[in-house]
Amino acid sequence: MAAMPEMPEVESLVRFLDERLREHAIARVELAAFSALKTYDPPLTALHGLEVEKVSRHGKFLDIDAQGVHLVFHLARAGWLRWRDELGEKPLRPGKGPMALRVRLDDDSGFDLTEAGTQRKLAIYVTTDPQSVPGIASLGPDPLADDFTVDTLAALLSDAGRSQLKGVLKDQKVIAGIGNAYSDEILHVAKLSPFKPANSLTDVERSALFVAIKDELALAIKRSEGLAAKDLKAEKKSGMRVHGRAGQTCEVCGDTIAEVSFADSSMQYCPTCQTGGKKLADRRMSRLLK
């Protein structure tokens, strides 16, 4: 299962960081992966000496606000944050390893941003206006916001037309923060096929989807409360009922969890719970059999 951080993990990281960064000054920011920094004005050094006022998020983007200068980053598929109560004195060396950025606070605590693998998708921005970050400017509404109602969802599904539900839930421009893993979980709880057209839901199905979105994301955040950053990925995996569990038994009905594979991802679902017992065509296998 891909360990891509999604909104519940990002929200947990926000709370974890806010508790540790707020009212501390940023002593130094060191860049190891130059390709990760997407902005040049203000420079990283503009953050030096500024006190962190709050940490928040926009969808899956983390935003550290230091007196109006924002350090914004998106962890992408393979990025992660490693907190250290005490950073060593050795300066960070640019290289080919996983290290991308280090933020050192005035008490020598801080964190490293790392990225595993060869695909470099981790993105870091320094800005005075988070809305100037292209990915933030185009975000859809936040599903955990109070003003995200069943009517909001109904309008989004209507606008999506016959697009498949799975793709609509994953699209950050439609709804901010739901990714591959939690869209699988949400659709399982709502008992909806991933391939069902977005505009074909009945009122009852729309209500079930709305409740599943709110509940699944809130529960995932609650499960992560109080965990250290290093423990969030393992917690995410342990809380999944269908995602990443192809071939295992569905806890709800006892059927075998099935999978559909795509070029760079896969999705899991329960045929009995979600598709009337039918297996969805696995696009990858279909191509091989031709």
Q: How does the helix and strand content classify structurally?
A: alpha+beta
Q: Major sheet: size, sense and barrel closure?
A: 4 strands, antiparallel
Task: Please tell me the overall pLDDT.
Answer: 89
> Separation of termini?
27 Å
Cofactor: Zn(2+)
Domain Formamidopyrimidine-DNA glycosylase catalytic: 5-122
Family: Belongs to the FPG family.
Domain FPG-type: 241-275
In words, what does this structure look like?
The protein has 290 residues and is of the alpha+beta class. The protein has 2 domains: 7-137, MutM-like, N-terminal (N-terminal domain of MutM-like DNA repair proteins, Alpha-Beta Barrel), CATH 3.20.190.10; 150-289, Helicase, Ruva Protein, domain 3 (Orthogonal Bundle). 30% of the residues lie in helices and 20% in strands. It is built from 9 helices and 10 strands. The protein has helices spanning 7-21, 134-137, 150-159, 165-170, 180-190, 203-224, 232-238, 271-274, 283-289; strands spanning 26-31, 52-58, 61-66, 69-74, 79-84, 99-105, 110-115, 123-127, 258-261, 266-269. The strands form 3 sheets. The chain has a 4-stranded antiparallel beta sheet, with no helix packed on it. A 4-stranded antiparallel beta sheet has the order 2-3-4-8, with helices on one face. α1 (7-21) runs parallel beside α6. The radius of gyration is 20 Å and the shape is elongated.
